[in-house]
Write a structure and sequence with these properties.
In chain A, strand 4 and strand 5 form a beta hairpin. In chain A, strands 2, 4, 5, 6, 9, 10 and 11 form a 7-stranded mixed β-sheet that branches. Chain A is an all-beta fold. Chain A starts with a strand and ends with a strand. Chain A is built from no helices and 11 strands. Chain B is an all-beta fold. In chain B, the strands form 2 sheets. In chain B, strands 2, 4, 5, 9, 10 and 11 form a 6-stranded mixed β-sheet that branches. Chain B has a 5-stranded antiparallel β-sheet with strand order 1-3-8-7-6, with no helix packed on it. The chains are: A mainly beta, B mainly beta. At the A-B interface, strand 4, strand 5 and strand 10 of A face strand 4, strand 5, strand 9 and strand 10 of B.
Chain lengths: ~120, ~110
Amino acid sequence: GAGVSQSPSNKVTEKGKDVELRCDPISGHTALYWYRQRLGQGLEFLIYFQGNSAPDKSGLPSDRFSAERTGESVSTLTIQRTQQEDSAVYLCASSEGRGSNQPQHFGDGTRLSIL
Amino acid sequence: QKEVEQNSGPLSVPEGAIASLNCTYSDRGSQSFFWYRQYSGKSPELIMFIYSNGDKEDGRFTAQLNKASQYVSLLIRDSQPSDSATYLCANRGFSSNTGKLIFGQGTTLQVKP
């Protein structure tokens, strides 16, 4: 596609429910990243995919968070038993590779609100 | 100490002036630096990236990098009201073999007509 696509754009759910967030990277981009942005804050790294494997999961805040990527394309971030502190914008980015000269391009994000 | 620090602002400049946005970082091994612009409610948009000491110019934007002093700045010449946004500084460390970016919390820029 022309850019990184994320869905849904907004998600409101009750505390304790599970949610799935989807990311479609730019076609041909092998590297995919998930970040979280709390209100008024910068972006926090969550997880990195190279192809379908995730060599860096160091940013996942707890075992309630998981992610997968299939077909070296679409990625899904799952949050189980959501808590109010999970409320944030979840941003996905992709790049051609992980090299230092490869800029990351972001999707519009999913705004997650936990009631 | 945060890994990447920015003054949250707001930085207010009149239309047509030069806006100067600054960022410091703690990882001496950082290799590459990025400036993103983020309008309210929107996703970050890449403006510039810089790897070498010195200046890099692109249109009205100039990025400046000083690795010895561990700071990177973004100058916006002839500022326009449409430049009003939050500017995020990010770097990628030498030890990072994943390419993940470390972001500052952003500086809000207001350009007044």
